[in-house]
């Protein structure tokens, strides 16, 4: 005998299974529909991005088509994911129009049209790829007043910092005086007269013999301006020592005559006093002197230079300076006494006369 | 002068010290501008010259203002103050107070009349850079103030300026020249993450949005648009 309750239970289970299957199928279908809806929204968004410029053209049908499509898809939106896709599509449309409105403020020019204008106004042929390029320098000069650039000063060398560096403190080394042994005193050779002394002596001898001479005749050396100056120098020392006096006659000529120096008492008591005056002598004055003084009237002898070549007629021209020489055998030798060579005419070597041969003396 | 000495007395600074500070600021502006290659000088750098030795809070502002007057009267240069702008993608939710505290910078511009500047001052040898600056700013402006990097290069390619060209006969490395515009604060470079993925965008920066410059750019573009219309009408 069949159980009616069991049959009823089985029927309920079957009905539940059928209901579950149905709902699963519905869920699957729903997921597929939603996926399809989102992919349609993606297509719309891509269309908005690709056809951006066409959408904003006045009277464009594409905008109406896009809006209608978005409206249709919007009616099918139920779940959050599709709502996000719907919002993104609307955002794309709004962005496109906001950009278009901003670009309308530029005189209604699009970037493409602007570049076309540039190529028309500043283009030059001869470009690499398309054959049309821009004359950038010409364009730059035309638009320079927009920016009015300041290029800065480039004259600065060194670091940018304006800080004052403190001066380095100098360290002074203590100056140590050299000791006495470092600086030996000069040795004065007794009896040796300087050239000035010799000139003074010569001049005084001339004055002693001549008594009263013209100053120009006394100091002039017709052959040498330098020796004229040396003669004047010697005369100044004689004047300083009060051994000569210079007088001026009514014609203005200067005469020099010898005199004795004043006594010490006269100097100390103030009867006799020193005074100075400047005697100017330059090269022009020397030339004038040469014209004034007759030739041969010069009193001071012309002095020859000691390094002039020596000759037998002038044995005094031999150098008398001792020459030190280091010899390996004899050691340090001093070449002092000149030995005169006999000049043999038959040898015919006159040049030998110009060379002196010295005795050598070893230095102990 | 009496007002100046009164102002300085409130800072406990002598007139000579004030003049020295002003001279330092002017010197810094003149030489730093060249060293920077035309990039704006930050206000912080100028205030540091003053605050290095002086603690008074309002003193830097007084010094900078006087330096600005002297630059104008002595050299004929205008020291324009710019407020550093941020990319539009990061601007959402920023309050006005935060915007006011943005870094300030200074650029120097000549005050000569336009025709005098064009005829006697503008260096022809660097004119190509000025032209490039104008073209790029104009493209970004006409694109609504913001343009994707790819679109910008599409437009530049029409004028034989390629992104990968490093040996252009006029500009050399073109990408570097574009980067220089970003450093000189004519453009902002911004990375935006969108539904299409991340992309680089160029926006107008504070120097291009500054009043006189923006106005002149619009004038020139309008002139071009009118001449284009005239040409079309003639055709």
Q: What topology emerges from the helices and strands here?
A:
The complex is a heterodimer of chains A (364) and B (235).
Chain A: H1 4-50, H2 52-55, H3 61-75, H4 80-104, H5 111-122, E1 123-125, E2 132-134, H6 136-147, H7 195-210, E3 213-214, H8 215-219, H9 225-240, E4 244-248, E5 254-258, H10 264-269, H11 283-292, E6 323-327, E7 331-339, E8 357-362
Antiparallel strand pairs in A: 1-2, 3-5, 4-5, 6-7, 7-8
Helix pairs in contact in A: 1-3, 1-4, 7-9
Chain B: H1 2-11, H2 15-36, E1 41-42, H3 43-51, H4 59-75, E2 77-83, H5 96-100, E3 104-110, H6 114-121, H7 127-142, E4 146-148, H8 149-157, H9 174-183, E5 187-194, E6 197-204, H10 206-209, H11 211-234
Antiparallel strand pairs in B: 1-3, 2-3, 4-6, 5-6
Structure description:
- The complex is a heterodimer of chains A (364) and B (235).
- With 364 residues, chain A is mainly alpha-helical.
- Helices cover 46% and strands 10% of the residues of chain A.
- Chain A has helices spanning 4-50, 52-55, 61-75, 80-104, 111-122, 136-147, 195-210, 215-219, 225-240, 264-269, 283-292; strands spanning 123-125, 132-134, 213-214, 244-248, 254-258, 323-327, 331-339, 357-362.
- Chain A has a three-stranded antiparallel sheet with strand order 3-5-4.
- The longest helix of chain A is centred in the N-terminal third of the chain and has 47 residues, at 4-50.
- Mean pLDDT of chain A is 76; it is low at 127-131, 308-319 and 339-364.
- Chain B has 235 residues and is of the alpha+beta class.
- Helices cover 57% and strands 15% of the residues of chain B.
- Chain B has helices at residues 2-11, 15-36, 43-51, 59-75, 96-100, 114-121, 127-142, 149-157, 174-183, 206-209, 211-234; strands at residues 41-42, 77-83, 104-110, 146-148, 187-194, 197-204.
- In chain B, the strands form two sheets. Chain B has a three-stranded antiparallel sheet with strand order 1-3-2. In chain B, strands 4-6-5 form a three-stranded antiparallel sheet.
- In chain B, helix 3 crosses helix 4.
- Chain B is globular, with a radius of gyration of 21 Å.
- The model of chain B has no long low-confidence stretch (mean pLDDT 84).
- Chains A and B meet through helix 4, helix 5, strand 2 and helix 6 of A and helix 2, strand 3, helix 6, helix 7 and helix 11 of B.
